[in-house]
Amino acid sequence: MIGQSLIYTFNRYRTLQTNVISALPVVILMPHSACNCRCVMCDIWKDNKNLKQLTEQDIAGLLNSLKKFGTREALMSGGEALLNPGFFSLCKILKQNGIKITLLSTGLTIKKNAQQILEFVDTLIVSLDGDEALHDAIRNIPNAFAKVKEGVEYIKSIKPDYRITARTVIHRLNFRNWESIINEARAMGIDQLSFLPADVSSHAFNRQMAWEQPRQHEILLSEQELPELQDVIDQVLGRKGDFATRYIAESPAKIQDVYYYYAAFYGLNPFPFKKCNAPWVSTVIEADGSVRPCFFMDTIGNIRESSLDAILNGDSAINFRKTLDMSKNESCIRCVCSLNLPPMAKPA
After folding, report:
1. How many other β-carbons are positioned within 10 Å of the β-carbon of residue 96?
2. DSSP 44-96
3. Phi, psi of 265 (to 5 degrees)
4. What is the distance between the terminal CA atoms of the chain, rounded to a whole angstrom?
């Protein structure tokens, strides 16, 4: 085991040095293209009629590459992954090959799927956008909050130590509700809470075109609202116990970066620096088989046409990693999230 671990760490270093993927700790899969929410900050649901989904054949076809790369974790995202009727069959294939499963879900159907989630999913991440009224308004789904709460509490009643975390996108519609979100998460039994600003400028989230300013400003804070945002952040930063215990996943500096991110749109400061090695440690595979080096980057191939190994280590993909300057790439500069997994670190 020690020998295998050393080889894996060596391959992680070699990947970063050569830009050829020798180890790939994380694969991000989108089992289903549709979503069961209609969120104001996302356009995925607008394409629900054009359903796409990964199949057992797709996952089985990935196994040789994932074994070669020593992949240890599959993050199931979407859309809503649980909408795929064969979702747990996909999980079973991956689990049988030693790959941990993390599910990122809207939370609407987690009670219905609780037993299989406990059997096949190692960690569950639910979305939480506000207190009950605000969460339902942002999700555009009646009783969305109640379904998340009911599901979390039901799973915890079966297995109290099962890890359920929540992720919140902070934006113009909910930043004033920030402390209520923390309190509601605690009340329903969430183990940890994470925050990030809203992406308003990329082609991600099924945007055929990047949002123009009128649409952006439905979600983007106005310059006049920035002082109020700072007041709210100061209140959150005052919850020192939540940072000490890491109930809030981010450091105080990362929480402050939410302000700097929105202020950057008005030229008040640069966009916050993000240390990221996502294209070297992960890949994204969409519901139609398309492969991206990062959620915010262009497609580089399709697993239904080539092996994942051939796609990630093709000349164009290697050249992309070799020439990517994150300090100048507009997608990287304005990115709202980052994945930085040092060679000695393990996936979360």
Report:
1. 9
2. GGGGTTS--B--HHHHHHHHHHHHHHT--EEEE-SS-GGGSTTHHHHHHHHHH
3. -65, -20
4. 20
pLDDT digits (tens, 9 = 90+) for 137-179: 998 899 999 999 999 999 999 999 999 999 999 999 999 999 9
Q: How far apart are CA 288 and CA 303, in angstroms?
A: 9
- 178-188 vs 144-158: helix crossing angle, rounded to 10: 40
CB 221 within 8 A of CB 268: no
Q: Which of 127, 122, 118 is nearest to 145 (CA)?
A: 127
164-170 vs 26-29, strand pairing mode: unpaired
Average confidence (pLDDT) over 26-30: 97
Residue 297 has phi, psi (to 5 degrees) of -105, 165
Q: Is the pTM of this model over 0.85?
A: yes
Q: Which residues pair with 75 in a beta bridge?
A: 28, 102
331, containing H or E segment: helix 330-333
Q: Exposed/middle/buried for 207, CB within 10 Å: 0-12, 13-18, 19+? A: middle
Pick from 308, 309, 284, 306: nearest CA to 294:
284
- Say if strands 290-292 and 301-302 run parallel, antiparallel, or are unpaired: antiparallel
Tokens standing for residue 70? 């020593």
Give the separation between CA 343 and CA 299, rounded to whole angstroms.
25
Q: For the chain, percent helix, then strand, then coil, each to nearest 5? A: 45, 15, 45
Question: Which tokens is 308 given?
Answer: 């994942």
Asked if the peptide bond before residue 3 counts as cis, ω within 30 degrees of 0, the response is no
CA separation for the pair 348, 332 (Å, rounded)? 22
pLDDT of residue 205: 46
φ, ψ at 29 (rounded to 5°): -110, 145
Q: Which tokens hold the place of 226?
A: 């920035």
